[in-house]
Design a protein that fits this description.
The protein is an alpha+beta fold and about 210 residues long. The chain has one domain: Nuclear Transport Factor 2, Chain: A. The chain is built from 6 helices and 6 strands. The strands form 2 sheets. The protein has a 4-stranded antiparallel beta sheet, with helices on one face. A two-stranded antiparallel sheet has the order 1-2. A hairpin with a 2-residue loop joins strand 4 and strand 5 (about 125-140). The longest helix is centred in the N-terminal third of the chain and has 28 residues, at about 25-50. About 25% of the residues are buried.
Length: about 210
């Protein structure tokens, strides 16, 4: 698209938009929203591919410069150290992304959610996690980035096993809770409206 500069993992917007502003502010706002939507929509896929490639440089470039990295501190170098440790907990991985939706808070901030099925090789096991990421996005210097990502799993089990009644069986050294779908208010409200005995007939662990 004219006015968009795509360099590596960076998606920049605003060059063509700035030129349009003098002609029609309304058209400029609409074009900026389209370009921003395209940039944000690429972030989850770029994240997944960088993660599976163990490309730490590309991975941390997807986050804002002063990103919070937990015990490692703040900033991309701190985040790189955090991911270097996390990615050494398994060997091969593949993160499959679908169902991305997001809403703008203002012209430079947005929030969104995306589904992910992630597979990991750990020893003799091949483990599958299904989860929903909940994201905050911000635009800094014409680049849309993650501010933070939070993971909420449905289940995490070996690929040869079915989920339930224990929905999280991996990893064994990290506390992981099956937060989905219970954390969705509409899901909880739906089941509260019906037969209270039905969840127990449909699930071994309602």
């Amino acid at each position: 698209m004219a006015g968009s500069e795509n360099s590596g993992s960076r998606v920049r917007t605003g060059n063509y938009t700035s030129a349009m502003a003098a002609m029609d502010p309304t058209a400029s706002d609409r074009l900026d929203r389209i370009e921003s939507s395209l940039a944000i929509s690429q972030l989850p896929s770029r994240y997944a591919m960088a993660l599976d490639a163990c490309d730490l440089d590309a991975l941390v470039e997807l986050f804002i410069g002063d990103v919070e990295a937990g015990a490692e501190g703040r900033g991309r170098e701190a985040l790189k150290r955090w991911y270097d440790r996390v990615l050494r907990r398994f060997y091969r991985s593949i993160h499959l992304i679908c169902g991305h939706q997001f809403d703008f808070v203002d012209a430079d901030h947005a929030t969104g959610s995306v589904y992910c099925r992630a597979e990991h090789e750990d020893g003799d096991g091949w483990y599958v996690i299904t989860m929903r990421y909940e994201d905050d996005y911000a635009r800094h210097d014409d680049q849309w980035c993650f501010v933070r990502r939070r993971e909420y799993p449905w289940y995490s089990v070996d690929v040869t096993e079915r989920p339930g009644p224990e929905f999280v069986r991996w990893p064994t050294d990290v506390t992981l809770r099956a937060a989905m779908p219970m954390r969705m208010p509409t899901w909880r409200a739906f089941w509260k409206r019906g037969d209270p005995a039905l969840p127990g007939r449909l699930s071994a662990r309602p």
